[in-house]
Amino acid sequence: MTFVYEFKTNKIRQCNFDLSVNFEIPATCVVRNDKGKGRNNRALMDPKQVVYAMDGDRYNRNAYMPQRFPRGTWTIKEPYPVDEADLEYKYKGPWMIPTNAFRLVRVWDLHTETGGYLKPAGEWVKDWGYAIHSSESRTTLGCIITSVLSLMSMKRLIDECRERREPVYLEVR
To answer: Model-level pTM?
Structure first.
């Protein structure tokens, strides 16, 4: 089974391998970063706004500017529940649908006095952790967000495929 997310339509379509559409669900990937306008612009000097790349090593602290979900075809992994005790539950719960998506992101230097963003550095790192989930926020750090109802419909289809040992993909265009 293949799901297709298109930035221009803000929809996830569930498609068969022949790309015939079974249903559509609304979804967005509005990222708050240095290129955003209005409320979508990240406050660069605020240290609480600094985001660190998920590069597989929890000790690495590579600050980067959030980017949209990377284009390409990715494998959808097994969905997992988000603990209600998680401080970010309202931004990630009740379920996460993880993928193997990644992208290279530019590391940012931080301001020595404020701890906020200073300027892009010359180094690039691989950022993982791109997923599909629901959120009370209208912006994201790069994940695709949808309603809880749509997320649960998508999860049900993924679970059915996993029971049949069928691969599940997400194509991002």
So the answer is: 0.90
Phi, psi (deg, nearest 5) at residue 72: 135, -175
Is the predicted pLDDT of residue 166 greater than 70, yes or no?
yes
Question: Which residue from 25, 52, 34, 42 is spatially nearest to 134, judged by alpha carbons?
Answer: 25
Q: Whole domain around residue 115: which residue ranges?
A: 2-172
Distance between CA atoms of residues 58 and 51, nearest Å: 13
**Is the bond into 120 cis (omega within 30 degrees of 0)?**
no
In this model, does residue 105 exceed pLDDT 70? yes
CB atoms within 10 A of CB 148: 13
**Nearest to residue 39, comparing CAs of 147, 145, 138?**
138
Beta strands at 95-98 and 131-133: parallel, antiparallel or unpaired: antiparallel
Whether the CA torsion 156, 74, 68, 50 is positive or negative: it is positive
Distance CA 5, CA 29 (A): 10
Domain count, the chain: 1
